[in-house]
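Hello,

Our lab assistant flagged a job as stuck in the queue for most of the afternoon. It eventually completed. Since we weren't sure the result was trustworthy after the delay, we are filing this so someone can double-check. Below is the sequence as submitted and the structure that was eventually returned. Let us know if re-running is recommended.
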Amino acid sequence: MAHDPELVLRLMELLADEPDLGEQRMFGGHAFLVGGAMAVVASRSGGLMVRVDADEAVALVRHDGVERMVMRGREMRNWLLVAPEAIETKTQLRPWVRRGVAFARSLSA
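-- returned structure --
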């Protein structure tokens, strides 16, 4: 399945004022990079992949619709998958985007 084009547009809107923003097709989805580091991805499997601090991820997976990202059978420490139903509104999506951007910025600091 291809990524959700509507989610890509919603992400573009939220990231429009973000300096040093890049976009790239990655993991079969549409990735947004900040300062050259991946922040969020409109996932090919649906929903949003968010890059976060591994220590933060422990608490964040307790949210409904949030799980650790698994690629090729391997759990990704710094990546979460947020289900489409958990990001239906701008109010739901915005905090996840902010988390991803903040983590990407921390890598370039």
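-- support follow-up --
The delay was a queue issue, not a problem with the job. The result is valid. The beta strands are 21-26, 29-34, 37-42, 48-51, 66-71, 74-82. The mean pLDDT is 92.
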